[in-house]
User: What shape does this take?
Amino acid sequence: MTRALTAEVRRLLTVRSTGIFAALLIGSCVGPIVLMGIVYDPAYRGPIDASDLGKCVSIFHVLAIVFAGTHTATEINAGSTALSFLTQKSRWASLVAQAAVQWAFLAFAYVVGIGLALVAARFYPDGLAMSPRGWAYLAAYLLVVLLWVTMATALAVLTRSVAVSVAAPITWMLLIEQLASMVPMLEAITPWLPFNASHMLLAQALGEAPAGMSVWPPAVALLVPALGLAGAGLCAHVRRDSA
Amino acid sequence: MIEVDRLSKRYGQVTVVEGLSFTVPDGSITGFLGPNGAGKSTTMRCLLGLHKPTTGTVLIDGLPLTAQTRPAEVVGAVLDASWFHPGRTGLAHLTTIAASAGLPDRRAWEVLEAVALTQAAHRRIGGYSLGMKQRLGLAAALLGRPRNIVLDEPMNGLDPQGMEWMRAFLRDAAASGHAVLVSSHLLGEMETLADRLVVIDNGRLLGQWDVADLLHARSRQALLRTDDDERVEQALRGLRVPVTALPEGLCVTFDETVPDALTLSRTCRDLDVLITALTDKPIRLEEEFLRLTDRSSEAEHGKERPER
Assistant: This one.
């Protein structure tokens, strides 16, 4: 496993696109806060809080999916699976290592990005206001992002296509679920859709969820597709003929 | 040594490889031949465990590759010239594979030196020529100092110098005891490079031979020039020996009546004709390959033809 991890770290760090993605991911967290300070309008008086940072993280979320789908599918199409199978004893190790390295990279970018955003917020005219629930919200958002990244990675493994692995989750999040929530007949199932579930979980973390709402239904709604796709991806990686 | 035993591979209803058995012995270059779509690449992928065989086994040094603890030391392979990320440098590509195989980084430099690519180590692979990519692929295959080498069309896109380099490299590898399996469409190349040949068509084995045996066994023709070709031709036709007049002399196909060059020269002596030149007309591998694959195709079509 150590070999697989080392190889995946090198695979990640030796392409130019990683640096570009790192800049975009970090920039998506800090950039909007800096911009808000520059175009400050007293009409919207009030300190920066966790939900403001959450708006930045929603850009990070989309970029993280783009990164995961692109990196995984591009590497598969560049023969990474075949080269791993020819050099490692276990087939599963290369995929698990790749997912772990992607998670670590994204978590690192998130921590740096949010850290810089918090620093930038200190220079915001109305300052920064972070409650303990705000920290929980930011931690929960990272977990949500990593679960969506897992789905994008699994789709890349299953389809070996950059387009599908990037477009499918983003279309689902930003189009299909939004449309579904506008259809009154689908009211019963929309809470069980993963993107809605993600927001319910985040609302819980921030303490803005309706009273008495349990954390488990949205957690299950998000975990089931993430784990299902991850399992299918791992199964395909181990059993299927390599690309 | 690579041993393939009754290997079959099916994709849905399509059988790509069927009951294929052959060996790739140590210390020799085995050419793997077959027309397009014969199943060569699929066989090689199954052989390396990249595709799972439907039935049959492949043993490399006595074990399936999946059971080897350090597969990179058992077999090195290049099956696809696109096994690179174009944005990565040659050195980074090799150090990544070295890390995956648990090998030290200095091996990357050693193999770059072995394939004469050290100058391009820090250049992105997207800027490499096809020949350089072939060399880099070979470098990756050699990282673990493997005992067996499997290459799919390694001569593709190489210039004459590159081909000469690759030829010398593979010969050295075989001479130092490695089992080398090379597929190629360049039959002339295989004729001079390979020690053994495995020929397949429609996923089935047509045969495996030593190149010399195959070509000599089929070398049943001689080119004869005399001071009276016309008379010799008439005499041979009278004996029902197949003979063709060519601009460069008479092409005589040996049979039971005239089985060899000695009998042919005796016949000329009996006719009181002076031989000015007598040479074997060797069968080219290309002719033999076409004969084998044509026969296989005819059999295949014959099988499919409905009975009347």
In short: Chain B has two domains: 2-215, 220-280. The longest strand of chain B covers residues 14-24.
